[in-house]
Amino acid sequence: MNRIDQLFQRKKERVLSIYFTAGFPNLEDTLPIMEAIEAAGADIIEIGVPYSDPIADGPTIQDSNMIALNNGMSLKKLFEQLQDMRKTVTLPVVLMGYLNPIIQYGMENFCKKCQDLGIDGLILPDLPMQQYLDEYKGIFDKYGLRNTFLISPQTSEKRIREIDEYSNGFIYMVSAHAITGARTGISVEQKSYFQRVQAMGLKNPRLIGFGISDAETFSTASQYSNGAIIGSAFIKKIKESKDLKADIMAYIRSVIA
Fold first, then answer.
1. In principle, which of 24, 30, 176, 202 could form an S-S bond with 68, CB 3.0–4.6 Å?
2. Would you call 216 a catalytic residue per the annotation?
C-alpha cells in the first residue's frame, strides 16, 4: 500500500507535512534535511523541485528556488540524491514541482523513476485537472503515485467535489487566496472557509497550507482538517541555521509539542 494511504489510515489528526526546497541551503543538504525531519517527528516530507518561475510561491520559497538552482540543483541531480533515501527514510515522500521540467524529462520516465526511488505522491500546482485526467492519470496509477490538487477559499463547492472525486492521497487546502508565506495567523474568514469545507464530508484527507508556522497555527488548522503543511517558515529556519539537524529537530518539536 502507498505510504500516504497508510499514514492517513493510521493517523487522522495533527498530521504534519514539512516542505523544503531540494538543494537548499546547500546542494547536498537534501537527504540530511529529510532524515532530520523524520527524526523530529513530522509525518510527511514534501520536497520542492526548484524551478525558475514558481508561480504559487512567495518570496521566501522563490528565493530558495533561485539559491538551489544556482547551487546546481536539477531534477536529474535530485533523483541522484534520492537514490538510497529508503535506506534511512520511512516517511511518505511527496515531490512538489511544476510541469515544465517534468514534461522535458518525460512524464512516464518521471513517474517510473519516482516509483523506483520510493516517492509516494506528487503536487503539481500548474497541472490542469482535465489534462491530468486525459493524459496522466493512467501513468500516475500505473506507478502507484498519489496526486494532490489544491483548493482555495475561491474554489466553488462543485469544483471541490470534483477535485475530491479525482484526487487521491490528500487534498491541499490553501488557507488564503495568496502566495505562500504572505501572511501570519489565521483569520475569522479563513476559519469560516475551513468550516465550510469540513462540513462537505469529503472522502480525501485534507491538509491546510500557506501561513502555518508555529504550534498555534498548526493546532488551529488541525481543528478543521487532518493536519497542516509548513513551508516558508521552515525554509527561513534552515536558511538561518548553523546546525541543520539540531535546529530542524528543535523547530519541528516546538510545532507538534
1. 24
2. no
